Amino acid sequence: MLKILVLGANGQLGRCFADQVALLDASVRLAGRADVDITDDVSLRHALQLFGPDIVINAGAYTLVDEAEINKEEARLVNHIAVANLAHACSDFNCWLIHISTDYVFDGEAFNPYLESCETNPKSEYGLSKLNGELAIQASDCQHLIIRTSWVFSEYGSNFMKTMLRVGSTNAQLSIVDDQIGCPTYAQHLAHSVVCLLPRLLEANSFSGIYHYCGSDECSWYDFAQVIFEKARHLGFKVPDHIIPIKTEAYPTPARRPKYSSLNTDKFFNTFGISAPDWKAGVDNVFSKI
């Protein structure tokens, strides 16, 4: 029976992986930070030795993009150093590593969706820490899937959709950035797609590499908010009277965001035959669960 260890199981993405692996005929261990601290190499190796997983899914990360500009060392510890240790441990214990990365490894200066082979050039400490985590995995001998995704939302945790619903319920007017373009990704879609391919990993080592996975249509944050509030209004939620599109310069943040970070997902589809569902369906799913 396939043995799967999910790290970071209490976070937004980790909880979605927990939902999806429950549908597999597999032995699963869900580990939050209190169970396995990925920044503690001894704790990590002890967990791998005890459970003996075939596949480790790392859903844990430092995801506070703006705070990472100040807390550089913490972001580096979680997103780079701990990931490097995890990769070496997976190599030593001969198990696959599934690691979730981000569109923020790119600078956002492109005009077409980024391929896995495109040059990386992160413009934030968060993006740099995630890129260095990727490089550490590639430098190890472990079998791995590095999956870059973008604009993740779900019914769990803190994310753009839930923030919009919260602030939209108390503000008559909101200003939303409309010149940053990306692809929203429903975390349950991502987790489901990854879980569906897990049994295949034990068939061949040739799957190792970087893959992109995101929602099917690109949009701006303003467009994303419009979809959320339109559906919310029909369901009787309190929403703003007006949503105003603004430029990035009008909403300065400590961390620089990519202006354009859509991801080309052809490699994921061509390799595994799995395409991302429409993210708008993900918005509907969130509403059905909250």
Describe this structure in words.
By secondary structure, the chain is of the alpha/beta class. The chain has nine helices and twelve strands. It has a six-stranded parallel beta sheet, sandwiched between helices. A two-stranded parallel ribbon has the order 6-9. Strand 4, helix 4 and strand 5 (144-149) form a beta-alpha-beta unit. The longest helix is centred in the first third of the chain and has 21 residues, at 72-92. The two termini are 34 Å apart. The model has no long low-confidence stretch (mean pLDDT 95).
- Strand coverage percent: 15-25%
**CATH architecture designation:** 3-Layer(aba) Sandwich
Q: Based on DSSP secondary structure assignment, what is the total number of beta strands? A: 12
CA radius of gyration is 19 Å
The secondary-structure class comes to: alpha/beta
User: Main beta sheet: strand number and arrangement?
Assistant: 6 strands, parallel
Number of spatially distinct domains: 1
Give the low-pLDDT segments: none
Helix content percent band: 25-40%
Strand order of the largest sheet: 2-1-3-4-5-10
The CATH homologous superfamily name equals NAD(P)-binding Rossmann-like Domain
- The rough form would be described as globular
Q: What are the secondary-structure elements, in order, as H or E?
A: EHEHEHEHEEHEEEHEEHEHH
Question: Under the CATH scheme, which class?
Answer: Alpha Beta
Helical segment count: 9
Any idea of the CATH topology?
A: Rossmann fold
